[in-house]
Amino acid sequence: MYDETNDSPDSCELSSVTPQVNPVNPLAGKIPAEMRILGGKMQPVCRLRDLYDVLGGYANFSTRSKEHFDAVKAIDGQDFELTLPRSVNSEAVRGRPASDYFITLRVARKIVMMSKSDLADAVRDYFCDVEDAFLEQRNAAPVHRLPGSFKDALRLLLESEEEKEKANSARLIAEEKSEQAQLLLERKEIEADQLAAQVKTLGPKGEYHDRALVSKSRMVTNIIASDMGLSAIALNIALEGMKIQRKVDGCWILLQPYTSKGYHDIRVSIIPDHKNGGERTSNSLVWTELGRKFILSLEPQIRAFLAARKGPKQ
Fold first, then answer.
1. In this structure, is residue 195 part of a structural domain?
2. Residues 158 and 134: beta-carbon distance below 8 Å
3. Residue 144: left if φ>0, alpha if ψ -120 to 50, beta else—which one?
4. From CA 277, how far away is CA 280, in angstroms rounded?
5. Cβ atoms within 10 Å of 267's Cβ, excluding its own
């Protein structure tokens, strides 16, 4: 190591240090991560319970998590957010299910470094190895100035780690956009085939109300709610409470920014008008396969919302 009071490269005592050229991060592959919007941006996050399992577990999750969040100065909604554990099911929503948190990888690293576990000791060694390797490289190229203190070296290290995370996040986002584009292309191809079939069936004199105005690939909310073990009423309430949809003139509509993502269509039906005679139109929201996938991805948040609200019996 070097003396923080002297930033001269000649003062660095590196002759007795044998740093690793490419230190291996002991956290790599141990904690499952996923892409999620947290703190207003898409980024890799992990679950706090998964992290605690890797560290050996803690007896009182609620108390220990609060202590850790306070210690690392984590901000609710920016560095972590409440969710349900993976094991929760539709029956658990009726009671008082256990809680879990999504946390940023930066907060996860801080919590690990606070721990007294063997893994935490390995992580601390890893950061020391990275710093030693960094100092050795800087010493081999005297044209560059060494950091004036350990704090500066650690700052540069953290900036490097954050750049790696940004690159990984950009790659995951690009893959997700590519998948969405493929789904959209497939949906358009299906719609084109169905439209051609409808034109062939209707002929030049076909009337507007003789056919449905949307393809059969659309599905109503009941179907998606059934896949989640919920009622359509409960699912609609959750989506409204999460600012995804609202009801206008008896018809659910999506809110921004979800209206242009290909999640839905409006089904127009021709029904008898018993009050005034004749016929009238009725509008209803239906979901595309892309919309169904989007709703199913929100299942943990939907269940957490319904549990907190103590809403209608599922």
1. no
2. no
3. beta
4. 9
5. 16
pLDDT at 15: 34
Q: Residue 215's closest CA among 266, 282, 280?
A: 266
Helix (H, G, I), strand (E, B) or coil at 280: strand
Nearest CA to 96 among 304, 253, 278, 242?
304
Q: What are 81's strand-pairing partners?
A: 102
Task: Report the distance separating Cα 273 and Cα 19, nearest Å.
Answer: 82
Residue range 276-283: mean pLDDT, rounded: 78
- Decide: 129 and 23 in contact? Cβ < 8 Å: yes
Task: Tokens for 29, please give them.
Answer: 């592959």
- Give the largest CA-CA distance in the chain: 96
In this structure, are 103 and 22 located in the same domain? yes
Order of strands across the sheet that contains 33-38:
33-38, 41-47, 100-104, 80-83
Tokens of 164: 């790696």
The vertex-71 CA angle with 66 and 74, nearest 5°, equals 75
Cβ proximity of 209 and 279 under 8 Å = yes
User: 121 lies in which domain range?
Assistant: 9-177
Please give the C-alpha separations between residue 142 and each of 12, 154, 171, in angstroms, as whole numbers.
12, 20, 35
- The rounded distance, in Å, linking the Cα atoms of 295 and 290 is 9
In this prediction, residue 111 carries a pLDDT of 92
154 and 84 fall within a common domain: yes
CB proximity list for 3: less than 8 A, separation 6 or greater:
11
Give pTM, 2 decimals: 0.37
Spatial distance between the Cα atoms of 154 and 156, rounded to a whole number of angstroms? 5
